[in-house]
Amino acid sequence: MKPFMDKDFLLDTETAKVLYHEHAEKMPVIDYHCHINPMEIALDKQYRTITEIWLGGKMEDGSYFGDHYKWRLMRSNGVPEQLVTGDADPEDKFVAWAATLPNAVGNPLYHWTHLELQRYFGVTEPLNEKNARAIYRRCNEILATKEMSVRGIIEKSNVKLICTTDDPIDTLEAHERIQNDPTCKVKVLPAFRPDKAMRIDKPEFAGYMDKLEAVSGVKIDSFDALCAAMTKRIDYFEAHGCRVSDHGLDRVLCSIVSEAELDEILRKGRAGEAVSKAEYEAFHTALLLACAKEYAKRRWVMQLHFGCIRNNSEKYYKLLGADTGYDAMNDGTQAENLAAFLNLLESAGALPRTILYSLNPADNGVIATVMGAFQTNAEVPGKMQIGSAWWFNDHKYGMEQQMTDLMDLGVLGNFVGMLTDSRSYLSYTRHEYFRRILCQKLGRLVENGEYPNDLETLGRIVENISYYNTLRYFRFDEVIK
Fold first, then answer.
1. What would the mean pLDDT of 101-124 be, rounded to a whole number?
2. Phi/psi at 185 (nearest 5 deg)?
C-alpha cells in the first residue's frame, strides 16, 4: 500500500518519478487564466482565516465571491446554505467543509484540499470533522505571517506571471499599481473578457453600452461605432501589457447578417427592446469576429470557453447571483459552427492564436479535429490548441482523457498546459496535480513499451508543457526576463 499523498503521489512508475522530480517539479508556474482580484495583489492582502481564502462568502457590496466548486460539493453533502454562503461563523463553515471531505472519495477537491494543506500549512494528516478545529487554528496562525500574504503565497508557489480576467470597461487601476510597484516580483497582466458587450439578449446590455460609450469616448450609434469603441478598449488593454482575450460562450455561434441588420439589432438592444435568439446569435458572431481580427493584428491569444449552461437554478441565481455553483455542461452540437467561424477568420487572414475549451468532454474529438484543419503555415507550433481539461473536467480522469484525445489526434508536445481558472491564491497546486498526471501518463507509455525510454526527449517535453510552451505561445518571454 502506498502512503497517503506522499512525494510520489500519482507517480506509479519509475519513469514517471524521474520525469516529475527531475523536470516538472522545478518548473515555474505561469497562470494564464484565473479569476483572482488584481487589487488584492496590488494591496498585498493578508487573509484572516482559511475560510476566507478557501470558501469565501458574501462581500460588502452584497455579491458572493468564493470557491463555487466547494460550495457545490457541500450542498451535495446536505450542508445548510447558511454554512455555505451564509453568515455562519467562519470556523463552523470550515468544519462543515471538513465534514464533507471524507465523503468525497475520488473527487479532485479531496486531492486539491490536501495538496494545499501540505504545501502551504505543513498539514499532512487527512482533514475531517474531528481534527478540523485544530487544523483551522493552525492554518490561521500561519496565514497571519507575512510569508502568507497574497504576494507571499504567489512567491512561495514559484509563480512568474498571472493573467487576470478583466472587463473592457475596467480602469485597470490595480494593474497600474502593480506595474508601478518595484517591490512586486510577479508579473500581473490583464486579460480582455468582453462577454457583457456581446450579450445583447441580456437586460443589462443597454446599461453596459452606456458605460462602454463613456469609457471609450465613442458614441455607439451603429455597429461600426461599437467595433470602434471595442478597438479603443483593446488598445487600452494592449498598453497595459495584455496579450490574451477570453470569451465565455454557451455554445459556438456562426450566423452572418448584413451590416444594416446589425445596426437594427444594436438599436433594439440599446433601447432595451427584446431581441430574438437569431438576432442575438448574429450580433454575437459579428462582434466576436470583429474582436478576433483585432486580436490577430496584435498577436494576442484568443480563448473560447463553450459548452456551458449557466445559472440553472433561477431561485438561487436571484438570491446569490452568477458563479455560485449552479452551472452545468451543455450537450449542444459545436462542430459545424466552430469550423465555419474559424474558416471565416482564416479566409480574412485574421485567425489569431486560439485555445478552445469545451465543458463537455465529448467535444474533445471535435475540437482536436477541427483545429487540425487550421494549423497550416502557422507562425507558432500548435497555433490552434485544445485547452486543458476545464472546470467539471479538471479531475484525474478528465485530465488523462484530454491528454489522450490530444495524443490521438494532435501533437502533445506543443500543448500549453495547465491553468487554475480559480478565485483562490492557494490553487496553484492544481499545476502540480496536472504535472503529476502528465508524468504518470508518459511514464506508463514508456513502461508499456509504447515510447522509447528517452528521458532527454521526454524531460524536454514535460518542461515545455509545464512552462516553456506557455512562455513562448503567449509571448510572455518578452516580459519575463
1. 98
2. -85, -25
Q: How far is it, in rounded angstroms, from Cα 157 to Cα 425?
A: 9
Rounded CA gap, 241 and 273, in Å?
A: 37
Residue 354 burial by CB count (10 A; 0-12/13-18/19+): exposed, middle or buried?
buried
State pLDDT tens for residues 249-302. 999 999 999 999 999 999 999 999 999 999 999 999 999 999 999 999 999 999
Residues recorded for the chain: 481
User: Which long-range contacts does 226-232 make (Cβ < 8 Å, 24+ apart)?
Assistant: 226/197, 226/266, 226/287, 227/287, 227/290, 230/168, 230/194, 230/197, 230/287, 230/290, 230/291, 230/294, 231/294
* Residues 417/473, Cβ–Cβ less than 8 Å: no
Measured CA to CA, the distance from residue 244 to residue 187 in angstroms comes to 14
In which residue are the cell numbers 462602454 written?
A: 212
Cell matching residue 380 = 507558432
If you compute the radius of gyration of the chain from its CA atoms, what whole number of angstroms results?
23
CA pair distance 357, 251, nearest whole angstrom? 11
Distance CA 247, CA 309 (A): 14
CA 229 to chain centroid, in Å, comes to 26
- Three-state DSSP at 73 gives helix
Q: What is the dihedral of CA 384, 382, 366, 466, to 10 degrees?
A: -110
